[in-house]
Fold:
Amino acid sequence: MSHWKWAFLSAIGLFAHNRKSRRGAHFQLQLWSSARMEAHKSYRPWDPRQSLLLSPSLLNWLPEDDLAYFILDVVGSLDLRSIEDAYQEKDARGTRPYSPRMLTALLVYGYCVGDRSSRRIEAATWRDVAFRVIAGGQHPDHSVISEFRRVHLSALSGLFLTTVRLAQRAGLVRLGQVALDGTKVQANASKHKAMSHGRMLKTEAELRVEIERMLAEAEQADRVEDGIHGSARRGDELPAELRRRTGPAAEDRGGASSAGSRSAGGPGPAVGRASGAPA
Structure:
């Protein structure tokens, strides 16, 4: 056999051997990869920046028996003419104010669950589902909330009392953190006919005292925090270089800043559990 023919046949044999070896190695790699795939646990999709394909209903964010719905129903039925008349007496030009019914519901719910500070309530409209539902996705500045309470303090006190009395009639024992002692009195009235009307009035008087105490605590909390942070600041703002520049939160903050209701914006670390013109 000539030298060139021997070299040619050797090359063909080596090529066939290498090809067979590569096929075996590839098959082993496939088996190993399949075993890895079978053993690997996949996770549920998670993307905090993913936009919702359909606009959600805020009313689907809470269980049906949540206190927030009761507050919305009650405040929706209250007579707010004394507050709304004060709005209508002002110049109609300028920034549109927040709904006084929404602000009333925010305050009533906030005080019932123990949030007296206007800054905590503002932060809760960002971070607490119940507050966000009541506010309808809006985020009034703490200065708007506190000014609304101060201007309409007398009317709010009466509206709060009406809310508590309606809760008593509905058979509630507690309204958030507010104990409704009158519920026990009313429940026992049918068993004890000698229950005096004076006792019922005393219960209402006790509730008035508790409501006045809550409103006074709210005023004190806002004064203390204003002294610490200044009236325009919330106190938990991130440094400018760490704030997000885009997105719904930034747009909402931009609107608040343009209205002059805040010098630095954006929801930073949680203040509580959780723009517009003052009333």
In short: The radius of gyration is 32 Å.
